[in-house]
Amino acid sequence: MSTLNHQTIRKAIRERIESGEWLPGAIIPGEVDLAAEYGCSRTTVNRAMQNLADDGLIERKRRAGTRVKEIPTRQTTFKIPIVRHEIEASGARYRPHILERKTIKAPNHIAARLHLKKGAKLFHLVTAHLGDGRVHAVEDRWVNLAAAPDIVNAPLNEISANEWLIRKVPYSSGDVIFSASAAAAREAEAFETKIGSALFTIDRTTWLDNVYITTMTLRYRPGYNLHSRL
Amino acid sequence: MSTLNHQTIRKAIRERIESGEWLPGAIIPGEVDLAAEYGCSRTTVNRAMQNLADDGLIERKRRAGTRVKEIPTRQTTFKIPIVRHEIEASGARYRPHILERKTIKAPNHIAARLHLKKGAKLFHLVTAHLGDGRVHAVEDRWVNLAAAPDIVNAPLNEISANEWLIRKVPYSSGDVIFSASAAAAREAEAFETKIGSALFTIDRTTWLDNVYITTMTLRYRPGYNLHSRL
DNA sequence: TTATCTATTATGTATGCACATATTAAATGC
DNA sequence: GCATTTAATATGTGCATACATAATAGATAA
């Protein structure tokens, strides 16, 4: 059978754009024309083009046609790593080590992040994630007890709070913030580095249907980085 | 007409997963059944399901059926920001300020990144990206002159090297690395902060068809962060 | 029992067609 | 000239259908 699937056509069009045949901002032939040129149905071309539009390579408008993007929207998808997986992928044995675990009144900025009133009592958990005994990352987490009361009894020595929560509320929404932060005393000690060292940091707040579940700050050991391709 | 489009069905299925009707790991009804249930064609259900699979919510295998992912692959898409856009979005006026600009022998680790031999001569450019006169980020870039010889004459006071290169080679592939790094003397001075301050850092190497074009390190001012939703 | 083949089946993909919808360009009215 | 309506058109979407392909379960043979 013919090998003209939508992926082939998608690739062909991509190459024509990358080769400069159709310059940024230029309009490219309509679906009907391309279908004729490649000898396939418009449906197939349509699918290929939709994919390219998803990739941010082209811009499509009804009636107006399809154009190559002026400045391609460069976007990368990062898989939000699960710390245990990262550690195990490197061949080390994972173990969470709890540094702090108590239910206390949350600081105002934490309560605000979870859209709770000032002075709300939250479950506070600080965990060092160990790979073969070495600290890979330090997690500082606050959990809304109204949303996940069982957490106080969870076996957090065996399973990390993150994974425990994923099992409880697998499909939640979240905010993710990447930044760099300076090591405080606790992190400096854990990572055996100086106070003020630059640490790659992920802040994450999670909710489901307007109920805020948890917010956490994850600080990685010095030298850690997150890699992606575009 | 009926409002049963693929997006509606996609949303419906998503909700049934999020509600816990189909638990992680469980198999969900086949396309034919769902089509019957929703009163649409299998094509439409297929499209909805493919989208959900792209989102990492479900896993599909021929013959084996579709299952809810055990641990949902959390992934976020970050738009790789163009510094000028970031600055202008905040209402400030953008201006690049060149700190260094010369063609010299590249350090070995840079030559290696661009897959060139040791001692290759490269165009080296250090730029401070200013927003209303304040330094927003410092960029340290090396350009392969074999790939983009014209860069030596580019008006880099007006347009940043990044944007100039995007125009020359709009559709290239790249590696992106997010990390935290300590401010060296140059950055400390530019950002009016102390040496060793934690800076959010993006490393990026770009190529097109096996020709490596440029590699750069972009260090953002203290406090900068990258935000996303999942 | 174990290995190999075969039929079954769920998803994957291509196509032709019809109609929806957004946007532009042309026609019309003031 | 300027505003409004109308027609033309490229993409967006849904459906029925046919066939491809991979994985499994069951049948068959060693």
Short description:
Chains A, B: It comes from Hyphococcus lacteus. 2 copies of one chain form a homodimer. Chain A has helices spanning 6-18, 31-38, 42-54, 83-89, 108-113, 161-168, 185-191; strands at 27-28, 58-61, 65-68, 75-79, 94-105, 121-131, 134-143, 173-182, 198-208, 211-220, 225-229.
Outline the structure in words:
- The structure is a homodimer of 230-residue chains.
- The first copy, chain A, is an alpha+beta fold and 230 residues long.
- The first copy, chain A, folds into two domains: 6-68, Winged helix-like DNA-binding domain superfamily/Winged helix DNA-binding domain (Arc Repressor Mutant, subunit A, Orthogonal Bundle); 83-220, Chorismate lyase-like (Chorismate lyase).
- Chain A is built from seven helices and eleven strands.
- In chain A, the strands form two sheets. In chain A, strands 5-6-7-10-9-8 form a six-stranded antiparallel sheet. Chain A has a three-stranded antiparallel sheet with strand order 1-3-2, with helices on one face.
- The longest helix of chain A is centred in the first third of the chain and has 13 residues, at 6-18.
- The model of chain A has no long low-confidence stretch (mean pLDDT 90).
- At the A-B interface, α1, β4, α6, β8 and β9 of A face α1, β4, α6, β8 and β9 of B.
- β4 (75-79) of chain A pairs antiparallel with β4 of chain B.
- The structure holds a DNA duplex (30 and 30 nucleotides).
